[in-house]
Amino acid sequence: MRKQVPKHRAKRLKPICLALMEYQLSIGSLDLSGLLFQLQLVGLPANQFIFPGLRILITFGYHQNPHMKKLLKAIAGIAITLSLIVAITELSGNGYLVKGIWACYLHGNNSATINDLRYFDSHKVEAAKTSWQWPVSPACNKTELPAHLQEVLAKTQTVAFLVIQNDSIVNEHYWDSYSDSSLSNSFSMAKSITTMLAQIAIQKGIIKNWHQKVKTLLPDLKGAHADELELWHLSTMSSGLDWDESYKNPFAITAKAYYGNHVSDLMLTLPIVDQPGRVYNYQSGNTELLGMCITKATGKSLADLASEWLWKPLQAEHDAQWHTDAQGTELCYCCFNSNARDFARFGKMMLHHGNWNGTQIIDSSFVQLATTGALVPYYGYSFWLDDTDGTKVFAQRGILGQYIITIPEYNLVVVRLGKHALPKRGNHPEDFHVIVEEVLKMVKKK
């Protein structure tokens, strides 16, 4: 008995098989037995297999214009070969590769980009009906950015650079047709947002505390140490999860989670193999599990929660968009799309110990906890930490140099969005260090 393809795969394979069968019929290479087998393969009723456009094209080419015959055969052969490759990839469980190739290589890229929202499903994070506008300092942009900083911003293809001091904009620059309303992918800055949502769920009593066992929310979690896993392990990157954080390997779990259709199902196949809470190991899967816990506890999507608990209370000016998989699950370890001015609201809130213009959104004690090293001195609860010449710095950080940098001593928030980051110097990319060092030089001169 031939095994029928699962419905979710049959849906994606349907147009491929229709085109293939129509071509085979047109040249007389598909007999009744072959037809019935292919229909059974994808679970299609026999009256749906005709693909009229291709049939008319091939018929016209073969019978009305003999010179088109060889060309059409070549085109059809290439199409069928590609279709078979796609079909085999889907059936082997590697269908995410098709989306990855299409979104990256077929659009001239070799990795994820800051504007790849167009290739993903997404959920809207609604902004406030009445937004709060950033005051612009009378001295805005009157101090030229230091030459070394300008060089690094250009080298990393920066699209937005924003400096806010004492809650007012003092420097603001955009490049490459970006503006103060252009959406850009946050990448891993979203990890901090997911942790904020978990903390608010705790404040509201929906989640008990950071020591709640993950299996109370995700009972299907697997692994020898799954029973020991607590929520704080996920935020501090110490879960012991079997996850290889590889960005270059197309067969790695990171690519499969990013381009796949079922991120929640994928996460529940990954075991907790090491004892949690002992070793720091940066893994995007930790944040995805944390997001799944929040969704399970609240019964709401992360985008809806982000709107209700963060974006609207922060009086954001523009709607944001959060990447989802095909099932509507947010990729909560990445991919919160917004603009520099609205991203800066997170920095201002954290600068003021979780308070936004008189409203306490995040408990101040958690702000202190999140921005203090947990298992390592440079990473807290989903916030990156640094000490530049004795000045405390904490930041939300994305892989291509997305930064929301907060420097409390000087009442500074710096946002940088762009297409590349430089290699690391210590625990942070070189461009991060340059931004912090050069901005500090600017404000110290005043």
What can you see in these coordinates?
- The protein is an alpha+beta fold and about 450 residues long.
- The chain has 2 domains: about 5-95; about 120-445, 3-Layer(aba) Sandwich (Beta-lactamase), CATH 3.40.710.
- The protein has 15 helices and 14 strands.
- It has helices spanning about 5-25, 30-40, 50-65, 70-90, 95-105, 145-155, 190-205, 230-235, 255-260, 265, 285-300, 300-310, 340-350, 365-370, 430-445, and strands at about 120-125, 160-165, 170-175, 185, 320-325, 335-340, 355, 360, 385-390, 390-395, 405, 410-420, 425, 430.
- The chain has a 6-stranded antiparallel sheet with strand order 3-2-12-11-10-9, sandwiched between helices.
- A hairpin with a 4-residue loop joins strand 11 (about 405) and strand 12 (about 410-420).
- Helix 1 runs antiparallel to helix 2 (about 30-40) and helix 6 (about 145-155) runs antiparallel to helix 15 (about 430-445).
- The chain is globular.
- Mean pLDDT is about 85; it is low at about 1-5 and about 25-60.
